[in-house]
Fold this sequence. Notes:
The complex is a heterodimer.
Chain A: E1 4-7, E2 10-13, E3 19-25, E4 31-38, E5 42-49, E6 56-57, E7 64-68, E8 74-78, E9 87-94, E10 105-106, E11 110-114
Parallel strand pairs in A: 2-11
Antiparallel strand pairs in A: 1-3, 3-8, 4-5, 4-9, 5-6, 7-8, 9-10, 9-11
Chain B: E1 3-6, E2 11-14, E3 19-26, E4 32-38, E5 45-51, E6 56-59, E7 62-67, E8 72-77, E9 86-93, E10 99-101, E11 105-110
Parallel strand pairs in B: 2-11
Antiparallel strand pairs in B: 1-3, 3-8, 4-5, 4-9, 6-7, 7-8, 9-10, 9-11
Amino acid sequence: xxxxxQTPKFQVLKTGQSMTLQCAQDMNHNSMYWYRQxxxxxxxxxxYSASEGTTDKGEVPNGYNVSRLNKREFSLRLESAAPSQTSxxxxxxxxxxxxxxxxxxxxxxxxxxxx
Amino acid sequence: xxxxEQNSEALNIQEGKTATLTCNxxxxSPAYLQWYRQxxxxxxxxxxxxxxxxxxxxxxxxxxTFDTTLKQSLFHITASQPADSATYLxxxxxGNNRLAFGKGNQVVxxx
Lengths: 115, 111
């Protein structure tokens, strides 16, 4: 049972390049999330998906797009990368459509550097 | 605006002692609060959840309290071990799909 799997683990991008972070979960969870974690800032929610076919903006959505491809997969796209998007990105999932105390399961993170 | 505060200074503690971490919040009425552990280079891992109508929760050597009047949660690790060294995050949740995380508090257990 792999849990939440993210790819790639590490990526260096040039300013203006685009890329997609892939995420898949094998726990049959309804809700999936993308967070970024920066030193001194804590985890901040970028986008989330309460169920297949729905997505909503979180705290810091600018510069990102997401796709909930199916129940298992939730991808994060940077259309035109900027140095301010250098961060560690975490995909996560939880069982219910409304978090209501459900546990969040995190992936191992994707380290992205934009130069 | 909503604020979640955890001590930014690392807590250095002798092995065998009890480590106590604090999570304070303002402008928020969470329905529940969670604690996570994060090791360097890894994703956070869920430890405990406590709901607004609960005062205390325990799991093995871990204990969490939740005081909605003081707007504070305390996280205790009893009989601490070097393997407990990590960063601990508190997170507040309500009726929507969002968890708001604190910045985390590092614990270093000294053998």
